[in-house]
Design brief:
The complex is a heterodimer of chains A (272) and B (267). Chain A is an alpha/beta fold. Helix content of chain A is 30%, strand content 25%. Chain A has 2 domains: 2-102 and 157-266, Glutaconate Coenzyme A-transferase, CATH 3.40.1080.10; 117-154, no CATH class. The longest helix of chain A is centred in the middle third of the chain and has 13 residues, at 104-116. Chain B has a single domain (4-265), classed as Glutaconate Coenzyme A-transferase, CATH 3.40.1080.10. The chains are: A alpha/beta (272), B alpha/beta (267). Chain A: InterPro entries: CoA_trans_fam_I, NagB/RpiA_transferase-like.
């Protein structure tokens, strides 16, 4: 039933002002088209969670829709800084950005706890790091069996998780492969799940190493070919590294960024 | 002190290879005996891929995107480029790479870059102090580094040598190296040995076995102790006998340049 929905309708139904939203995808399968639809609808006061904010959150932050960021590495991979993210943190433009900052291991385990519906996860982490002094979602717990003190990280349960996958069938079963990231955990931790896919097929072919999210764990599937660009979908597209490099001068300048947003996102029908 | 002969030698060397190439070649050599390496993006990735083409063809590259045993034919721009997964022995979800593989103690060497390093090889990649009345300057953040540095058998750091990078006092401790001395890692229950070398474009620093303080142990061809001291933000100690790194071989330079050329051509 859900696959006939448009991206506009699915985003309007599942993502609301004030939500905690995770748009996940570790370099691969980043749901850019869905993010652009959130920007077009002006859904605001969001708490965004993502291990690697990437260009996708640079755009949402620059658009002024984000009040808080939960993350572990905020750069443009291989290129440099995320300038909209930095401008928000350093100068409060276009609005102040609250941070909840972690290590990758901590963030990954926060999603694992969320998917497991446990209040927290344990790891040997954050030892000697100043990170724990800047967040209330890291603490310690003593192992009841060995007495070892371990880091505890609070579960992360987004209101909605948005991911991009290679394909789904008509029963909304979702299949993705290649770099798997933390999408399975982020989806199972969330209250609502929106998936964009490269294509909807009659039957999912068995694929080595693929993760399948059964249709009953997903609220909406929307076909959006190329919906991960400038990220990529293994088997369908390659990472547009030239876009990531070209983003740097656009994001450095507030007016250049606004012009880019107006031309490539806010004008209807140019989702990527 | 640089005398005329040193200066002449430096000029010769500069004609043959760059400071960055000295850093990258020596970083690759440091992986000669490792079985597995957790690879950060940028300089560490260049070094680890060069090691696979020169001193250690069987080196297992593990990227935090969950690709285990990647054998890329060109340098990836990001840690999640498709080729890393396509050429891997196994691709696992991100929580698994951190929990089962890294925390599980299966990785010999963690290879990291850094924005700031102090004399005990602690690392800052979070924020920099820009002076009174100014907001903190924002850096990318921790990524995988705190747990990589804690859990790998040992850690290599690679970064260019400057007083901006080698600071008396970190503005923030993102990743613990040796804390404030030789007992801090044990006290904190860190499973691995921590940083064993910092490889720069001027030479190599290693922690003193007695104090854990970084000490200049090797200079690259054409570099003087004075140059390294001038590029270090604290009173850098030097080993009793400072050695010299061997100049890059023709094979090392050929492989390094081929790797970089392939990385550029895809962009």
């Amino acid at each position: 039933m859900a696959e006939t929905r448009t991206l506009r309708d699915a985003v309007a139904e599942l993502v609301h002002d004030g939500d905690t939203v995770a748009l996940e995808g570790f370099t691969h399968l980043i749901p850019f088209a869905a993010a652009h639809e959130i920007i077009r609808q002006g859904i605001t006061d969001l708490t965004l969670a993502r291990m690697t904010p990437d260009v996708v959150y640079d755009q949402l932050i620059g658009a002024g829709l984000v009040k808080k960021l939960v993350f572990s590495w905020g750069g443009n991979p291989g290129v440099g800084s995320l300038h909209r993210f930095r401008d928000a943190v350093e100068n409060g433009w276009p609005r102040p950005l609250e941070l909840d900052e972690h290590s990758h291991a901590g963030m990954a385990n926060r999603y694992v706890a969320g998917a497991s519906k446990l209040p927290f996860a344990v790891l040997r982490g954050y030892r000697g790091s100043g990170l724990a002094t800047r967040t209330d979602t890291v603490s310690t717990v003593v192992c009841p069996f060995t007495g070892e003190e371990l880091a505890a990280v609070a579960a992360l349960n987004p209101d909605v998780t948005v991911i991009h996958a290679q394909r789904a069938d008509r029963d909304r079963n979702v299949q993705f492969w290649g770099v798997l990231g933390v999408q399975k955990e982020a989806a199972l931790a969330a209250r609502r799940v929106l998936v964009t896919v490269e294509e909807v097929v009659d039957e999912l072919p068995p694929t080595p190493g693929a993760v399948v999210l059964p249709g009953w764990t997903v609220d909406a599937v929307v076909p959006v070919p190329g919906g991960a660009h400038p990220s990529y979908a293994s088997g369908y597209s390659v990472r547009d590294n030239a876009f990531y490099r070209a983003w740097d001068p656009v994001a450095r300048d507030r007016e250049a960024f606004r012009a880019w947003l107006a031309e490539h996102v806010l004008s209807e029908g140019t989702a990527n | 002190m640089a005398d005329a002969a040193d200066a002449a030698h430096a000029a010769d060397a500069a004609a043959e290879f760059t400071r960055d190439e000295l850093m990258e070649v020596n970083a690759a050599r440091a992986l000669a005996r490792a079985r597995t390496c957790f690879v950060g993006i940028g300089l560490p990735s260049t070094a680890a891929n060069l090691a696979r083409r020169t001193v250690n063809p069987r080196l297992v590259l593990i990227y935090e995107s969950g690709t285990i045993g990647s054998k890329p034919t060109r340098l990836p721009l990001s840690i999640g480029d498709g080729e890393l997964a396509d050429t891997a022995d196994a691709v696992v979800p991100v929580p698994e790479v951190f929990n089962y593989w890294l925390q599980g103690g299966r990785i010999d060497v963690g290879f990291l870059g850094a924005a700031q390093v102090d004399r005990f090889a602690n690392v800052n990649t979070t924020v920099v102090d820009r002076g009174p009345g100014k907001p903190e300057g924002r850096l990318p953040g921790a990524g995988g580094a705190p747990e990589i540095a804690a859990n790998c058998g040992e850690v290599l750091l690679v970064l260019r040598h400057s007083t901006r990078g080698f600071v008396r006092r970190l503005d923030f401790v993102t990743t613990l190296g040796h804390g404030y001395g030789p007992h801090d890692r044990t006290r904190l229950g860190m499973p691995g040995r921590g940083p064993v070398a910092v490889i720069t474009d001027l030479g190599i620093l290693r922690p003193d076995p007695a104090t854990s303080e970084l000490t200049l142990t090797e200079l690259h061809p054409g570099v003087t102790v004075a140059q390294v001291r001038a590029a270090t933000g604290w009173e850098l100690r030097t080993a009793e006998r400072v050695g010299a790194t061997a100049p890059p071989t023709a094979e090392e330079l050929r492989e390094l340049r081929a790797l970089k050329a392939a990385g550029r051509s895809e962009a």
